Amino acid sequence: MTGPEATSRRRGRRTRTESAGTRDRILTVAREEFSERGYDKTSVRGIAKAAGVDSALVHHYFGTKEQIFAAAIEVAFAPALNAPEAVADGPLDGVGERLTRFIFGVWENPATRTPLLAILRSAVNNETAATVFRRLVASQLMRRVASQLDAPDAELRAELAAAQLVGCAMMRYVIKLEPLASADVEQIIARVAPVVQGHLTGR
After folding, report:
1. Do 42 and 130 form a contact (C-beta atoms < 8 A)?
2. In this predicted model, what pLDDT tens digit does every residue of 16-34 receive, in sequence order?
3. What is the pTM of this model?
4. By the 8 A CB rule, do 34 and 26 touch?
């Protein structure tokens, strides 16, 4: 196509496909920046530079640095958000093993472990990042797990189970404390699952 119409199209707004591609690229770069640098050392300007766009465009799509971080970790945390389905998929007397096996399965996969490590490190070292992480875990994970339990203190039970699993993950994958760090994952599941079961359904 040539002439005024083609010129107008070239100068006009980006197509929806182009916009989606740019947004995805920024989000991918943001996740990588937060993973490599942590929350404190990552900047909107740095994300924009790595993505090959202007800082204003990053703000246009995501808003503040905190909002960019929230969007980035939600994508990274997405595999773990299927945990409520693992809880619901079977009888309650096996929920501890199902949930434990599911969570360790996410951690044992290098593709999902790397962004999760970045989330935990940022949450430990920065209060803003910790707030975003707590909000995500509470609203999209713990409350959904709790909704599968028939107990008046279901949210507390779900949080205690999460504390058990996150604590084990921290010791194994972040701190790398031996012999936990190199123990066979099936051995860990066998020991941790009954404790998680107790938190979720015990008296």
Report:
1. no
2. 565 778 888 998 888 888 8
3. 0.69
4. no
